[in-house]
User: What shape does this take?
Amino acid sequence: MTLTNGHIQEIRQLVQGHVLTRVPLSRFTSFKIGGPADLVAEPQNVEQLAVLVNYLKAAQIPRVFLGAGTNVLFHDAGFRGVVVRMNALRDFDMQTNGSGHGRVTVAAGVALPSVIGKVCKLGWTGMEPLWGIPGSFGGAVVTNAGAGGVCIGEVLVGIALLMETGEQTSLEKDRILYAYRAIELPQGAVVLGGTLKLNRDDPASIKLKLEKARSFRRKTQPGKVPSAGCVFKNPSPDNPAGAIIDRLGFRGAMVGDAQVSERHANFIINRGNAKSADVMGLVEKIRERVRQEEQVELELEICVIGETADV
Assistant: This one.
């Protein structure tokens, strides 16, 4: 259903946070790419989010949920519907019982680097290899974010969810179905947050592991240039996508202002004025060549969101 002025006014009554119309989605993504959304809404708490989700479902208005936007590519024409930003959900709770492990409950909108920084400072280990992965905690949960042989699913023991009806529920560890860079969720469910189980460790050991992760990421990945992280999933641990792309000579290749990074061939960077069409043109060139010469079908790791979506 098309979003009307009536819908917009009703949404403004439901959401006390920002409700913005025709705002460029390039403002909300690390790629700095994307045309205007019909509406961007930022609920200030779970209660507002639940009411909004229920309203959008009942009105059959297309919607997409956005964390920090660090692995997202929006269409150049934007999004015809409502983009719901989760950034206001910021609760963080550390629970210990005097034993060698503790539990951390984190809301979806908390930045993942902030989570890692806090738990490491408090003496808890298990997340150090994830240092430097940008984005929100909710996004990291949904994508099973990983680095250095560790993924967030390994330390996650529970997920809080919001269903399309506005009802809240949860999944415990034995019901969480994780795969490589993915999680299986109930139809229409939105991640509100999750609980991590971490072990106590020596501060010097934690510092050493953090420094190792920092050094590796700084040496191997692009600096502060707009990108969305790794573009493709690795076909296998011993045949990573970046190595394949590099082997076929794509390092530095460009379409428009989109360029395969000179430092890490599985990154596409925005040199300043790249369009979504430029990025996807480069993606398809790489995929086709890899398909022909390596007999490998590269699967996207970034989330590509079109101008329209099913309700």
User: Anything to note?
Assistant: The mean pLDDT is 95. The longest strand covers residues 190-200. Residues 276-294 form the longest helix (19 residues). The chain has seven helices and 20 strands.
